[in-house]
Design brief:
9-stranded mixed β-sheet, Peroxisomal Thiolase, Chain A, domain 1, globular, alpha/beta, two-stranded antiparallel ribbon
């Protein structure tokens, strides 16, 4: 398969008090159109990734908003898949093109999360877990991920300093990204001075509440050739699903859905892990990045924390990971997060990332999960 990326657009991620849901959508979609160099009338289908607008902003039917703001009447559908909503919307867009249902597709992710109290946001986000066995019992995602982290530490000997290395790296990268929510580097002392959220996870292990939108326009390869826009192409688009609740898992220090989606993506792309030069990995919690790097086959199980602390995943390392700052420091407006990962990889492959630019990047990968690894989406990109 080969689906071309025509253009991308992303707002700043932050607590954007002066921006409405409509404002964020408009900014991202018109940035993407401008980057693609096409008119709204050329869009044939729209997919919108969003999890929480109906609860937080009183707004459902987001597909209609995106189409209305473009002044077009094409099919436009909201996709909800927890924190993987954006990347799942991209899969829908890819499938629409592969099926012949559309030739040019806009995929946009959006979330406006800062308008509600932290307690409401925490409760709503647990909708991505199992309400009956987890949420009703008082579990939260920080609490569940803390359990995963503690078990991993006991099983593999991961140290707190190695866990901290993930957050420190990602904050250092975000300091080079003007669109990131946190543009400040942190130190090991900063990490250990941050409050414990759910032992052993500290505040600096956890992604923030964020507002933002991100959009990508994709097309068939043949359409892109007409506009000279075949520079970056999607060469694999995969998704897998595990059980909703942790208690039903065979293993909780490794996520089966990521393993399945990753293995299939590399098979479809016809490349190996060694070919990937830049990766945006889901890091809503520091532990998630470590587990994903192992599940995707970049490092042996139980070693990704050590390899991170040794600098292997820094911008100048063997496998630069989360050059954008990741969800941890770039921000995590959940519906937009998966698309923002795509934008970072596309910009890296096109050489647009300035001080955080990775050298000689031909292949890039994005990995996005919903829930505690329940849904996993992997995309692989190639620079022609």
């Amino acid at each position: 398969m080969k689906i071309s990326v025509l253009g991308v657009g992303c707002t700043k991620f932050a607590e954007l008090w002066d921006k409405s849901l409509h404002d964020l959508i408009a900014q991202a979609q018109f940035m993407a159109l401008d980057d693609a160099g096409i008119a709204p009338a050329q869009i044939e289908s729209i997919f919108v990734g969003n999890m929480l607008a109906q609860q937080f902003n009183g707004q459902a039917h987001l597909g209609a908003i995106v189409a209305q703001q473009l002044g077009i009447n094409v099919p436009s559908v909201r996709v909800e898949n927890a924190c993987a909503s954006g990347s799942s919307a991209l899969i829908c867009g890819v499938q629409a093109i592969l099926s012949g249902a559309a030739n040019v597709v806009m995929v946009i992710g959006v979330e406006k999360m800062s308008d509600v109290a932290i307690s409401q946001a925490t409760s709503a986000l647990m909708g991505a877990g199992d309400y009956q066995s987890e949420h009703f019992a008082g579990a939260t995602f920080p609490g569940l991920f803390a359990m995963v982290t503690r078990l991993y530490m006991q099983k593999y000997g991961l140290t707190s300093k190695e866990l901290a290395a993930v957050s420190i790296k990602n904050h250092n990268n975000a300091a080079l990204n003007p669109m990131a929510q946190f543009n400040k580097k942190i130190t090991l002392d900063d990490y250990f001075n941050s409050p414990v959220v759910a032992d052993p996870l500290r505040l600096l292990d956890c992604a923030p509440i964020s507002d933002g939108a991100a959009a990508v326009i994709i097309s068939s390869y043949d359409f892109a050739k007409k506009y000279g826009k075949t520079g970056v192409n999607i060469i694999a688009s995969t998704q897998a699903t595990d059980t909703l609740d942790l208690a039903s898992r065979e293993e909780i220090t490794s996520f089966k859905a990521t393993k399945i989606a990753g293995k299939k993506a590399f098979e479809i792309a016809g490349i190996t892990q060694r070919d990937i030069r830049v990766a945006e990995i889901h890091d809503a919690f520091s532990m998630a990045e470590i587990i994903a790097l192992e599940d995707l086959g970049f490092f042996k199980q139980g070693t990704a924390g050590f390899e991170t602390a040794q600098g292997k995943t820094q911008i100048t390392g063997e496998l630069p990971v989360n050059t954008s700052g990741g969800l941890k420091a770039k921000g995590h407006p959940v519906g937009a997060s998966g698309i923002s990962q795509v934008i970072e990889v596309v910009n890296q492959l096109l050489g647009r990332c300035g001080q955080r630019q990775v050298e000689n990047a031909q292949y890039g990968l994005t990995h996005n999960i919903g829930g505690i690894g329940t849904t996993a989406v992997v995309h692989i990109f190639e620079r022609k």
